[in-house]
What does this fold into?
Amino acid sequence: MRNVLRTSCAVIYKDNNIVGLITDRDMTKRVIADGVSVDQPIEDVMTASPHIIKPDDLVLHAASLMMQYNIRNLPVVKDNKVIGLLTTTHLVQNHRMQAIFLIDKIKYAGSTSVLASFTPERQAIFEALVEGKVAPETIGKVMTMIMDAYNRRLIQIAIDKLGPPPCEFSWIVAGSHARNEAHMLSDQDNAIVLADSATDNDKIYFKHLANLVTHGLDSCHYSLCSGNYMASTPKWCQTVSIWKAYYKKWVANPEYECLLNISVFLEIRTIYGNADYETELRNELHSNIKNNREFLSSLVKDAVNTNPPLGIFNKLVLEKSGENKKTLDVKKYAINLIIDLARIYGLAVECDLSATDERFKAANEKGVLSDDSFKNILGAYKFILSFRFNHQLVALKQGEEPNNNINPDHFGSFERKHLKDAFRIIADLQEAAKVRFGSR
It folds into this structure.
């Protein structure tokens, strides 16, 4: 007797591409209830262009999609083949994760003050992830999904207050948020991309929307960007054409201010609205870089201006003055340097992904980054991130404000040795980048 696979959902293919999804609930609601003839083609009643997930996606990502789009079934797809189906029942039965329920609470919060009250829960999730020794890249993804949920809910609250948007737009995030690398210290970097049809009156609407959202995020302890890289700044609330002109100017004339601007907006990700604008801007970026290969040289020159904090005789170089005197700034002198190198290698191979590890992986697969260098820099990056997260965990547990400045008296010989190894790996990759992408 053959085993029969029973399922409440079917995936529809056309020309070897997934084009739709049909469930037993769809058949009840769209066929039987509406009296649709069973002789009609399935494409008339199916859910077109369904959301899908990959086998290695986080459970939290799947849960977030289900809650955001109110869907009950997610096909698991590998190499364009459906290898499984994830349902809401699976999640409820097998994954009672605190972060999933926080995202659901955020989605239905009725006001900014209610959203702000969830901050202790967000901190508790971060602490649990670090204490559970979860991989740092996974911690970043979880904290990013929570930050995404805050953004989307605040945008919707603003729209409910102001009325429907007068034209199409995209709310994009940048920096660590765009890279899916958010953490408890993440501030906000965001912008609005408007349809080219946007009028001056339309821009007034989006100015109000941006102010409501950015100040709402600030009240939820996602602090305002000190450099004003926010949608509430008029310069960062512009039409698609103006954004394209920005990218063209930044790549063609990479002086200090342009490098600063593009270092923020080299990573962008759509949170709400028309995601096609993000694709247009990324294509514009790659096109301009192709026409000006000196741009990568400028990025390299800027990236190697700062050295890892390792001095002669293999000693750690500490801050010499200020309130953080005699501490090690692992963000400025390690994490940021790795992120800069990942940008360079990612752009060199036209990688559309923003995450630091994904950019290095793309460069490795294209033969631009050797296997040894790839493994070493990724290992160094993960170790330093874990080191920083544990430092921040201690501060949070003690009721102190977390930071990136670590007193070397507070860690042992094991951490000291591995930090020095990581700093040498960063310095080696800086030298390799200078050789490969330096002045041409």
Residues 74 and 86 are 5 Å apart (CA to CA). The chain has three domains: 1-96, 99-291, 293-440. The chain has a mean pLDDT of 87.
